[in-house]
Amino acid sequence: MATEKASDVWVPVCCSRVMRFNKFRQADGGDLGALVCTVCNKNITLEQEPLATTSSYGEGAAILSLLGSPKPPRTERRSAASDDDRTL
Ligand SMILES: [Zn+2]
């Protein structure tokens, strides 16, 4: 399984903003994560899984370093996903 460059991190973006990450403790003791867009409230659930079980995810699967911040900066992101082409 491929790993991304150690110095790079993936930042979850929605509505040109960095998504907020919250971690919840489940009743069974495991942790559950949620990425939430502060603009449109889009919600992505992240489940933890032991690294050893990830071999079943098929070709092209990669372990990503994902940035999870409960209080990300509220500044607008310039990204390819945005069709807004203003300069700052
Ligand atoms: Zn959004």
Explain the overall architecture.
The chain is mainly beta. The protein has one domain. The protein is built from no helices and 7 strands. It has strands at residues 2-3, 13-14, 17-18, 20-25, 31-36, 43-47, 62-63. The strands form 3 sheets. The chain has a 3-stranded antiparallel beta sheet, with no helix packed on it. It has a two-stranded parallel ribbon with strand order 1-7. Strands 2-3 form a two-stranded antiparallel sheet. Strand 5 (31-36) and strand 6 form a beta hairpin. The model has no long low-confidence stretch (mean pLDDT 85). Zinc ion is lined by residues 14-15, 37, 39-40, 42.
Summarize the structure.
The protein contains no helices and seven strands. With 88 residues, the protein is mainly beta. A hairpin with a 5-residue loop joins strand 4 (20-25) and strand 5 (31-36).
Write the layout of secondary structure elements.
Blueprint: E1 2-3, E2 13-14, E3 17-18, E4 20-25, E5 31-36, E6 43-47, E7 62-63
Parallel strand pairs: 1-7
Antiparallel strand pairs: 2-3, 4-5, 5-6
The chain binds zinc ion.
Spatial extent as radius of gyration = 15 Å
The total beta strand count reads: 7
Q: What's the helix-strand series? A: EEEEEEE
Report how far the terminal alpha carbons are from each other.
39 Å
Reported for the largest beta sheet, the result is: 3 strands, antiparallel
Specify the helix fraction band: under 10%
Bound molecules: zinc ion
Numbering strands along the chain, what is their spatial order in the largest sheet? 4-5-6
Overall pLDDT score: 85
Strand content: 25-35%
User: What structural category arises from helix and sheet content?
Assistant: mainly beta
Count of discrete structural domains: 1
Q: Please count the helical segments.
A: 0
Low-confidence stretches: none
Gross morphology is globular
